[in-house]
C-alpha cells in the first residue's frame, strides 16, 4: 500500500485543520478511483487529491493532476453540480477509509477495497469558522512529493505494457495461422492425387475432393511457372514452414502472456484485501468485479435485483452484456470503452463467468448469449429480461480459466 500505517488518519487531521471552510472551485475525475478538487481560500488555492487506486492510495495536496479524459465521467458531472461553490466541512479518516464532508454529499475513499464513492451527506459535522489559509500542510505535501516517483514509475510501466501488448498482437496473429497451414496441406494432397489433370502454364484448376461432407468441387489457384509436381512441393513446403512458425509463435505467446501478467500484477503491498464492506465503506456494489489477464474489468450481478441495477443503471448502452442461455443466472457486463472491440479472450472469460454464476454451474459445457446492453429490456420480474440481436455460442468450460478469474475478484464471493 502507498500509505504507511497511521498516515491516512494523520493527513486527514492536518487537512481538517487547514482546509475546512475552503470553497470547491473545480472538480476533476481523471480515473475511476481518483478525484481531484481545486479548493479556494483567501489568498490560497489548493489542489487536493483523493485516491483509492491500488498502490497509490492517498490524500495529498500539490503534485501533477493526471490528464482528464476527453469526456467528463458521469460521476464528475454529478459532483460538479453537487460540489461547485460548496464548502468543505470536515475531513475524517479511519485506518481504512477517508471521508470528506460537504453540505450536499460525502466522498468516501476506501483504501482497502479501492473504491471511491459519492454518498448522501447524512449527519453533518458541527459548523466551524473557516481555517486560515496560512495553515501549513507538511504531511499532505510530503505525500504528493513521494507520489512523483511512483507516477514516473507508473508511466514507464504503462509504456512497457503497451509495447508488450503490441508485440503480443503480432505474435498472436502468427500463432493463429494454423488453419492457413492446414489449407496448404489439403491443397497439396488434392493436387498430388490429380497430377494428371494439371498442366504447366495453367492459372487455375477445378478438381473433385472427397470428404466427410461427400463429393465437392474445388477450384485451386496455380503458379503457371511451376510444373504439377512443383505445385505440390510448394504447398507442402508452405505447410511445414507455417507449422513451424505457429509452434514458435505459440511458445512466444505463452511467454508474453506470462510477462504481461507479471507486469500487470500489483506489488504485494498493493494487493487488494478482500474484506466484506465495513460500516464506513458505504453500500456494497451491485456486482462483483473480475479482471482478465490483460486487466479488462468484468462485472457480475450479485442477485436478481442487483442484476437489474447493473444492467439498467450502471452499465452503458455500448457495454457488452452476457447471460447463460436457457437457465437462471447472473447478468454479466464487460464495460468496454466506446469503439473498443471485444477480443476473443475477454469474451471467453466473460462467458465462463456467466455460465459459472448460473444454474448450469458445474456442467462441462453449455450455451452463452451476448449482445450490447442497448438491446436488453426489462421483462417485469426482478432480473427478468428480454434481449435481441444476440449472438450465441457453445462454451466448453475450462477449469483453469475459472480458477484464474476467481483469483482476480475484487470482492469476496
Kindly summarize this structure in a few lines.
The chain has 413 residues and is α+β, with helices and mostly antiparallel strands. The protein has 3 domains: 7-150, ibrinogen binding protein from staphylococcus aureus fold (Roll); 176-263, no CATH class; 285-407, no CATH class.
List keywords for this structure.
single chain; 413 residues; alpha+beta; ibrinogen binding protein from staphylococcus aureus fold; 3 domains; six-stranded antiparallel sheet; four-stranded antiparallel sheet; 8 helices; 35% helix; 25% strand
Write the layout of secondary structure elements.
Layout: H1 7-19, E1 23-31, E2 34-41, E3 44-51, E4 58-61, H2 74-83, E5 90-93, E6 97-101, E7 106-110, E8 115-119, H3 138-175, H4 178-192, E9 204-211, E10 214-221, H5 228-264, E11 287-291, E12 297-301, H6 304-314, E13 320-324, E14 332-334, H7 344-356, E15 365-372, E16 376-378, E17 385-387, E18 391-396, H8 399-407
Antiparallel strand pairs: 1-2, 2-3, 3-4, 5-6, 6-7, 7-8, 9-10, 11-12, 12-14, 13-14, 13-15, 15-18, 16-17
Helix pairs in contact: 3-5, 4-5
Amino acid at each position: 500500500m502507498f500509505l504507511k500505517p497511521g498516515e491516512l488518519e494523520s493527513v486527514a487531521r492536518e487537512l481538517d485543520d487547514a482546509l475546512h471552510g475552503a470553497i470547491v472551485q473545480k472538480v476533476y475525475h481523471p480515473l475511476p478511483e481518483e478525484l481531484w478538487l481545486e479548493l479556494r481560500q483567501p489568498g490560497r488555492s489548493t489542489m487536493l487529491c483523493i485516491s483509492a487506486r491500488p498502490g497509490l492510495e492517498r490524500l495529498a495536496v500539490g503534485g501533477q493532476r493526471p490528464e482528464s479524459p476527453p469526456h467528463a465521467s458521469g460521476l464528475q458531472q454529478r459532483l460538479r453540480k453537487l460540489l461547485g461553490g460548496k464548502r468543505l466541512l470536515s475531513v475524517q479518516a479511519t485506518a481504512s477509509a477517508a471521508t470528506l464532508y460537504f453540505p450536499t454529499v460525502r466522498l468516501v475513499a476506501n483504501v482497502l477495497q479501492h473504491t471511491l464513492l459519492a454518498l448522501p451527506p447524512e449527519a453533518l459535522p458541527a459548523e466551524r469558522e473557516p481555517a486560515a489559509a496560512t495553515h501549513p500542510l507538511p504531511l499532505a505535501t510530503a505525500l504528493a512529493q513521494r507520489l512523483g516517483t511512483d507516477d514516473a514509475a507508473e508511466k514507464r510501466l504503462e509504456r512497457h505494457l503497451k509495447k508488450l501488448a503490441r508485440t503480443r498482437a503480432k505474435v498472436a496473429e502468427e500463432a493463429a495461422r494454423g488453419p492457413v497451414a492446414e489449407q496448404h496441406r489439403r491443397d497439396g494432397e488434392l493436387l498430388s492425387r490429380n497430377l494428371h489433370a494439371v498442366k504447366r502454364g495453367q492459372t487455375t484448376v477445378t478438381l473433385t475432393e472427397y470428404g466427410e461432407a461427400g463429393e465437392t468441387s474445388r477450384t485451386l489457384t496455380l503458379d503457371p511457372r511451376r510444373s504439377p509436381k512443383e505445385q505440390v512441393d510448394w504447398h507442402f513446403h508452405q505447410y511445414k514452414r507455417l507449422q513451424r512458425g505457429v509452434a514458435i509463435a505459440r511458445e512466444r505467446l505463452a511467454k508474453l502472456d506470462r510477462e504481461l501478467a507479471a507486469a500487470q500484477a500489483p506489488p504485494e503491498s498493493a494487493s487488494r484485501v478482500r474484506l466484506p464492506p465495513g460500516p464506513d465503506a458505504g453500500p456494497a456494489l451491485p456486482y462483483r468485479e473480475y479482471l482478465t489477464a490483460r486487466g479488462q474489468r468484468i462485472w457480475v450481478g450479485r442477485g436478481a435485483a442487483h442484476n437489474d441495477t447493473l444492467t439498467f443503471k450502471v452499465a452503458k448502452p455500448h457495454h457488452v452484456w452476457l447471460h447463460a442461455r436457457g437457465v437462471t443466472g447472473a447478468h454479466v457486463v464487460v464495460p468496454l470503452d466506446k469503439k473498443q472491440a471485444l477480443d476473443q479472450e475477454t469474451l471467453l472469460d466473460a462467458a465462463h463467468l456467466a455460465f459459472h454464476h448460473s444454474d448450469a454451474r458445474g456442467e462441462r459445457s453449455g450455451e452463452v448469449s451476448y449482445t450490447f446492453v442497448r438491446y436488453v429490456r426489462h421483462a417485469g420480474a426482478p432480473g427478468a429480461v428480454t434481449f435481441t440481436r444476440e449472438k450465441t455460442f457453445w462454451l466448453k468450460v475450462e477449469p483453469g480459466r475459472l480458477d484464474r478469474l476467481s483469483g482476480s475478484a475484487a470482492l469476496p464471493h
